[in-house]
Amino acid sequence: MRYGYFDDEHREYVVTRPDTPLPWINFLGCEDYFGIISNTAGGYSFFKDARLRRLTRYRYNNAPLDVGGRYIYLRDDDAPSPSYWSPTWQPTRTPLDEYECRHGMGYTTIQSVVRGIKAHIRYFIPLGESLEIWELTLTNQRPQETNLSIFASVEFCLWDAMDDATNFQRNYSVGEVEVQEGVIYHKTEYRERRNHFAYFTCSEQLIGFDTDREAFLGAYHGFDAPVAVERGTLSNSIAHGWQPVGAQHIRTHLQAGEVKSIIFLLGYHENPVGHKFDPSGTQTIDKRTLLPLIRRYRQLVEVQAAFEKHQVYWSGLLDKLQVHTPDVHTNRMVNIWNVCQLMATFNFSRSASYFESGIGRGMGFRDSNQDLLGFVHLLPEQARSRILDLAATQLPTGGAYHQYQPLTKRGNNEIGSGFNDDPLWLVFAVAAYIKETGDWDILDELVPYDNAPGSEESLYGHLQRSLRYTLERLGPHNLPLIGRADWNDCLNLNCFSDTPGQSFQTTTIKDGKVAESVFIAALFILVARDMVQIALKREGDRAAQNYLHAIEQMENAIWQAGWDGAWFRRAYDDLGQPVGSQECREGQIYIEPQGMCVMAGLGLADGNARRALDAVAERLATPHGILLHQPGYTHYYLNLGEISSYPPGYKENGSVFCHTNPWIMIAEAMLGNGSAAYDYYLRINPSKREEISEVHRCEPYVYAQMIAGREASTFGEAKNSWLTGTAAWNYLAITQWILGVRPEFAGLNLDPCIPQDWDGYSMQRTYRGNRLNITVHNPHHVSRGVAKVEVDGRQIEGNMLVLERSGGTYSVDVWLGR
Ligand code: GLC
Ligand code: GLC
Questions:
Q1: Burial, 729: exposed, middle or buried (Cβ in 10 Å; 0-12, 13-18, 19+)?
Q2: For the chain, which ranges sit under pLDDT 70?
Q3: Sheet of 760-767, strands arranged across
Q4: Exposed/middle/buried for residue 619 (C-beta within 10 Å: 0-12, 13-18, 19+)
Q5: Which residue out of 286, 489, 573, 813 is catalytically annotated?
């Protein structure tokens, strides 16, 4: 069953009924000011940091779902008894005669018709601005003229979203607003240390306003039935403490057939610390730098121009890489939605979505590094500065803070460090960046440790420390010690917590000298292979030899202690017992080491890679994707930690944890098995799963972190959509390994591994300043193997495309087969 359809031409997903199983959200904004918006206008806005600079409130975990949003009410002023509705369905949930929501690239429109009044609202954030626009267009489809009231409302958050949701003894007394010339200003704490405020206004003359929530809603009413809207007038209330809101009232008279547009603006503004007040000495906000901006965006032509600019920006991004394959789901995800999701993971890591409250987590170190893998070609400059920000949170030991706060860019002390895989992901991200851009100079950038001035060292030095960090922490089997956890945050082998509520991520009861990770060993090899080439270029043969030697030793350790006979083991626990082995009663086989070890090149020659992937196919693969491990843990294991805290089939306890599936796709592609790789790709492809939306339940246009596993009673149900490393890794798997156009240090490796029944495909891609039109021909219906490559009609040697940064356009033909 579907709840809408894809409109690929407009790069939109069209939701055709408001009552989706979960709020289906979209992200607004791509620079500093952001918003989350659902298909019924729920969601919130923030500046840079969803926790520390929150503009509007949202009710988490609420009944009904999805309360708090950008709410407009329309009221029939001619009706004999109060008659009003929400054109976005929520919050009044009045039945709509027509409804359609279009989620596009960085914008959302919602349109509905109720008793002949058509309302169309376009929500977006102009490039370069810290404000959002709600452009409302009303059409009177009635045969007669109509008097309408329009109310628009937001509920302000008192900036720190965590404090806002908990510290009522203070917060009920600090709220302050100001209203001047039709603009509502939210200025809580502006009197003291803040130099920023929010504002809410529109393009029309206001009939009235409210800024006090109780005056607007009534103490025992919700947003579904504000007393002021029922009554049809606002009371010009000024909030003193309690809950400041912004509510605006406009009246309009529409002739039959008349169309009218109204622009609402919600924004964030900063004043220089010395110029907060005007006149100085008062408590009145200095509005001199803001008012010109407001005047500008109150004009429809300006709004339309801003939207067009926004469209051009997104087209430019998407045009960086476009494909035409025989499969619509592949085309749609690669060309549109996977990129949209990559933008979101780049901007928010795992911090703010419908499932991430925006108050719990900052930017993850391993997460953001992985998110870069699919992002480096989109906005290389931004990728570069993100890499340098991440590296600056690395610790002198080579370890890293697990998270950092986007506003301050400082490592987050609450979670600290000690996740022993973290530093290796930095090497991976830097390598991906150089392979894409050819910008070796980034290695010379001086970057501090732990943001401490004076501690600067070259980025190359940071990478060296990352690898040394692993080598200095080896356990009894010469495998890397796992620390608090590795990629699997829930495999907490040093935790041993028996106290309710203790954090699995930060409690370490054991000294950590025994539990080891095969996954980190494989990841080490994978990134050390890149480091060999980096070191060769920077320092020459000796340095490269050292890494080759370390790789060899790590490989030996894996073959000695990490191979279980038919697949790779996952780890050793604090008692020295294997995890992910036939010997185990539960959790006998894990996906992560099968993917990582094969990607690192283990077992390619001797058939063990094939054995491991066969074991995956046999034991872990399901129609809904590949499970994390099997069997799931049926009870809590003190020696394993959070992984066994989840009921079997959910989250890290044996769900389809989508992030890991592309590792197997890549591994299959490395073995030349294009059909298997592609089959796995399609199983979790959200567009492909659209037809089972009633099972999947999350948005059909973006990947979710997990799909409930075979042991769960909701097998196939997705959760935690949008913010997941799945976005970057699937993008990598499909574009670089299956379609096989893969940036390497030397150039672009053309090595497709596609389903045999494909006749070929084409890709348009920007690479190091050049434009490439690549056509892959598959006349003999093979999966892999390049017979010849022609560039502008001339055959080149081999299949590595080495191009100068010339700004040229090249036509590249790749023939597979004999
Ligand atoms: C979450 C975390 C990520 C981790 C994964 C597996 O997605 O953000 O860092 O690797 O879970 O535990
Ligand atoms: C929980 C989640 C995991 C996440 C971790 C850190 O353990 O299951 O996915 O990575 O929290 O926030």
A1: buried
A2: none
A3: 321-324, 760-767, 770-777, 809-816, 786-791, 794-796
A4: middle
A5: 489
Residue written as tokens 């959790």?
587
Q: Say if ligand 1 is within 6 A of residue 490 CB.
A: yes
Cα distance between residue 87 and residue 66, in whole Å: 16
Q: Is the dihedral of CA 403, 405, 406, 410 positive or negative?
A: negative
**Ligand of minimum distance to the alpha carbon of 487:** 1
Q: Which residues pair with 749 in a beta bridge?
A: 742, 800
490 Cβ below 6 A of ligand 2: yes
Strands (E), 319-473: 321-324, 363-364, 403-404, 446-447, 457-458
Q: Summarize pLDDT for 650-705 with one digit per residue, the tens.
A: 999 999 999 999 999 999 999 999 999 999 999 999 999 999 999 999 999 999 99
Q: What is the DSSP string of 142-183?
A: SSS-EEEEEEEEEEEEEE-HHHHTT-HHHHHHH-BEEEETTE
End-to-end CA distance of the chain: 44
| Residue 709, pLDDT score | 98
* Residues 377 and 60: beta-carbon distance below 8 Å: no
Token pair belonging to 720: 């935690």
Q: Which residues pair with 136 in a beta bridge?
A: 121, 262
Please choose, from the candidates 125, 157, 120, the residue with its C-alpha nearest in 3D space to the C-alpha of residue 140.
120
**Is residue 124 a contact partner of residue 263, using CB atoms and an 8 Å limit?**
no
Model's pTM, two decimal places? 0.97
Q: Which of 549, 548, 490 is nearest to 519 (CA)?
A: 490
Which alpha helices (DSSP H) does 648-732 contain, by range? 661-670, 674-684, 693-696, 726-732
Active site residue 76: no
3-state secondary structure (DSSP) of residue 373: helix
Peptide bond into 700 cis (omega under 30): no
Best of 415, 421, 490 for a ligand 2 pocket test (most atoms within 8 Å of beta carbon): 490
Closest to 66 in 3D by CA, of 87, 36, 96: 36
List, in order, residues 6 or more apart from 169 with CB less than 8 Å away: none
Asked if the bond preceding 631 is cis, omega within 30° of 0, the reply is: yes
User: Which H, E and C letters describe 105-135, residue by residue?
Assistant: CCCEEEEEEECCEEEEEEEECCCCCCEEEEE
In Å, how far are 325, 376, 809 from 770, measured between CA atoms? 22, 15, 6
pLDDT digits (tens, 9 = 90+) for 417-426: 999 999 999 9
How far apart, in Å, are the Cα atoms of 314 and each of 30, 318, 337, 687, 765? 10, 6, 12, 20, 15
**Ligand that lies nearest to the alpha carbon of residue 519, given by its number in the listed order:** 1
209 Cβ contact partners less than 8 Å away, ≥ 6 residues apart: 179, 184, 234, 236, 246, 247, 248, 249
Tell me, what's the pLDDT at 592? 98
Q: Is 350 a pocket residue for ligand 2 (Cβ < 6 Å)?
A: no
Whole-angstrom Cα distance, residue 26 to residue 36? 6
